[in-house]
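# nightly structure sweep
# worker-07 picked up a monomer target from the shared queue
# config: single-sequence mode, recycle default, output format = structure tokens
# input follows
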Amino acid sequence: MQTLILTAGESSRFWPFSEICHKSLLKVGNKTLLEHTLEGLKGIEVILVVNPKTQLSDEITKNKNIKIVMQEEPKGMADAIIKSKAVVKDDFLVIMPYYVNIKDYIQKLNKASAPAVAVKKYEDGDEKTHGIAKIEKNKIVEVREKEKFDGAGYSIVGMYKLNKEIINILEKTQNSDYTLEDSLNEIAKTKGLNYFEVDGLPSLKYVSDLLSIKKFVYFNVKKKSEKHIKKNNVFIETTAILGKNVKLGNNVSIKGETYIGDNSFIGDNSLIRDSIIGENTEIGFGTEIARSIIMDNTHIHSGFVGDSIIGQNCRIGANFITGNRRIDRKSIKIAIKEGYDTGLTRLGVIMGYNVKTGINTSVMPGTLIGNNSIIGSNTEVKGRVESNKLVYSKKENTEKDI
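# output follows
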């Protein structure tokens, strides 16, 4: 069964990483999210829809089982499907490039009759990012894009089994604002639309969603991991996964669903729990990292990092502290678009690539820091720091005679 993977969008809600690459090309754990997804599709013909800026690895571009389709402008899912008409067969799958656990659903997808969509039970707020569906007598009878309406009890997730009938409908209206949801609604209202229920699919609409995809990456890595070696005066829970040549200091504790990448170092008296640590990272003395993603080649001297995402090649000075909860314990907003309520009550910093911080810096919950920025010593940061900025607090010593 051919599988169409959509990787041509702007990922504008994924700042600051959207300045670096498409969100599916972020490396989390030992592979990019796209590579994790492709791993679950071995033996299946894949069509990748990309834009001119997409930088794919040689391993992907030279793979004879992968066809590349160019979408010159990010005009949405409908346009991407139309662009693929020449290479798709009658029935084909359409999925998002960050479905790292796609292998779990292949059998269910093969049994579905096209056209069909994947749905889940509606949850409050789903209409902000999902199409909404009404189901009667085992058929979807109405679909609306990002709008909750009477009788609608399901949300459409980004997994479809389609055929060329859909492409023909889309082509007739491709110069309008017609969307894929409109086409699905046309089918739903005339003859009913097939569906299949799924659960446990990762969602990656906003940059903060990376924290929810962490567990899917962990289990994907765990399936192939080798047994780690226990060492003296080091506590490693059996759930932890250690890559090759990982060095651990004295009295290190590694707990929960944690992955530590190849050639990384964890310093004395450090605690790592439920986190993904990239390759060639260095975590210094007495550092606690909880429920976070630390990408490749980042060095943290010491401090506390909680519920945070830190990009590649960052240099974090001593006593770096993330505030990860509001005092009132309300959900945390981030400065994306007009301000996005993440729905999370735990969220620290989201830090881009190549960021440097001085000693004794701290960040408030939901802080965004752009790529290549520098945060000066003894500075508290909140809200959003744009890329390529220097931020510091001016403090002067007062000297008096005694």
